[in-house]
Structures are given as C-alpha cells and as structure tokens.
Design the sequence.
C-alpha cells in the first residue's frame, strides 16, 4: 500500500504545553513535515501548577509565547519550577513552536486534519462534540490516554509517533484504521478508542 504522506495530524491535550507538544516534537524529529502536524489545547486557559495547589499559573491561549511563560516562572521562583520539571518542559516547547494554541480558535476552513490524536478522555469527548456539527472532510479522532506529567508525556510520545507512522503507511486510513489500532494496542499495550467525525 502507498504511504499516505499527505495526511495532516492534530495533537490535542488540555493546555498544549505537555503531552501534545512532547508528541509534536517527536513527530517532527521522526521526519513528519511541519505543515503536516499541529498541536492544540482545549482548556479555557493554559494552566500550569503554581507554588500553592489552589493557585495555578494561568496564561491566555494564542497570545503568549512559551518563552514568555518560561521567563515568568523563572522570575517567580526558578528553583521551585525547575525542581517540578516545568522549566525543562517549557525549554523543550520553545524548540517546537511559538506558543500554546487553542483548538477552538483554529481556522476551521484552513486547519483541517485527517487524524486527530488526543491524550485524555475528556479532551477526546470535547473534540468529538466540537466536530459533531461538521459535514465535510472525514477525520479519525483517536484517544490514547496519557497521565498529565512530564515523565508520562515523554514516555508516551514515541508511541504517538509509532501510531501516526502506522496510519500513514497503511494506505487509506478509512479502510485500515481499525486494523492499525488493533495492532498498535497489542504491540504497545495501550488502550485506544476512536470516532469518525466530519469537519
């Protein structure tokens, strides 16, 4: 079967800082074109842990750069945020793209995707609901559950690459998606679910 190099992939988590960007970076490193991969968050704001449990750091999607978040947290308490792995995460993010983007703010005419990979059930449910009014291009929304920690995101990113490569290499995804997901699940011992939606 011919490789489907034209496929476009969206990677989505809550804040577009951890899980989706870790996978985004690994896909680029694996040779996926920057035009073929985007990443997003679906939350009301970009939220990162604060020094107090009930006081997270909040930033606005599409308006703040990862570098600005990094500089802000360094100014607040560099040793604390370094010890939590948050600064390392942001230092990775600045090498991938400018800043966190919100799925809901995308250009719905231009930013269409064949495969949408989420990393949390509530994010998956949100994206499926968001696409429920669509009637055009078909896409597969796939959830691969990943705990929202820096370590888990890094560990899961190669699996996201493996899954996207398998989909791209299998031929027309509409005909092969179930077989690809079944094989991926057996190889990686990760449960996935998917829904066909329309944009």
Sequence:
């Amino acid at each position: 079967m011919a490789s489907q190099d034209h496929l476009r992939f969206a990677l989505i988590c809550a804040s577009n800082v951890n899980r989706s960007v870790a996978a985004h970076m690994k896909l680029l490193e694996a040779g996926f074109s920057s035009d073929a991969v985007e990443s997003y968050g679906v939350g009301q704001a970009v939220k990162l842990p604060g020094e107090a449990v009930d006081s997270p750091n909040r930033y606005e999607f599409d308006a703040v750069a990862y570098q600005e978040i990094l500089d802000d947290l360094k100014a607040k308490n560099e040793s604390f945020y370094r010890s939590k792995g948050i600064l390392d995460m942001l230092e990775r993010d600045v090498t991938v793209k400018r800043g966190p983007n919100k799925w809901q703010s995308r250009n719905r005419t231009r930013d269409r995707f064949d495969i949408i990979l989420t990393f949390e059930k509530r994010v998956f449910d949100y994206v499926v609901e968001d696409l429920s009014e669509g009637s055009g291009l078909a896409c597969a929304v796939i959830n691969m559950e990943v705990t929202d920690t820096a370590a888990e995101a890094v560990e899961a990113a190669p699996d996201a690459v493996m899954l996207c490569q398998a989909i791209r290499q299998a031929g027309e995804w509409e005909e092969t998606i179930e077989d690809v997901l079944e094989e991926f699940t057996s190889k990686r011992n990760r449960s996935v679910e998917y829904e066909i939606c329309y944009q």
